[in-house]
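[step 3/7] inverse_fold.run input=structure_tokens len=134
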């Protein structure tokens, strides 16, 4: 419980520092931020697929260190097939310019999340499918 709280606080701090740096300095974060996320992952439980997926989501959104993001997505999916990791995988493929694989990943995410209680994730993935399936 304390580990998850510590990891969440670390993610919040990294995200906030990225936002401030983005306003003041440049459009892309420094790879130092990816290192901080990587260090936070060393404190995660071995079966915590969500931490890997959320970490990958952050660096995919930054559009930096995409190879590292792909490794974390794969790790998350190896631990447990989950909707968030498939959504992030879709985002990864979009950054790679592979819309077809992105749609496939979003559809996998949607098929998983339909049976969960996460309506926010479901709606977000549905919007992505509609937006990128044109």
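[step 3/7] decode complete -> sequence:
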């Amino acid at each position: 419980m304390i580990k998850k709280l510590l990891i969440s606080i670390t993610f919040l701090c990294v995200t906030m520092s990225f936002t401030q740096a983005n306003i003041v300095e440049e459009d892309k974060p420094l790879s130092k931020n990816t290192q901080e996320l990587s260090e936070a992952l060393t404190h995660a439980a071995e079966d915590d697929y969500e931490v890997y997926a959320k970490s990958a989501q952050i660096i995919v959104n930054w559009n930096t260190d995409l190879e590292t993001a792909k490794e974390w997505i794969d790790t998350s999916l190896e631990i447990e097939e989950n909707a968030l990791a498939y959504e992030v995988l879709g985002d990864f493929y979009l950054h790679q310019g592979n819309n077809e694989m992105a749609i496939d990943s979003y559809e996998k995410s949607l098929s998983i999340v339909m049976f969960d209680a996460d309506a926010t994730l479901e709606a977000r993935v549905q919007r992505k499918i509609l937006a990128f399936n044109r």
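[step 4/7] annotate
The chain has one domain: 2-132.
The CA atoms of residues 41 and 51 lie 7 Å apart.
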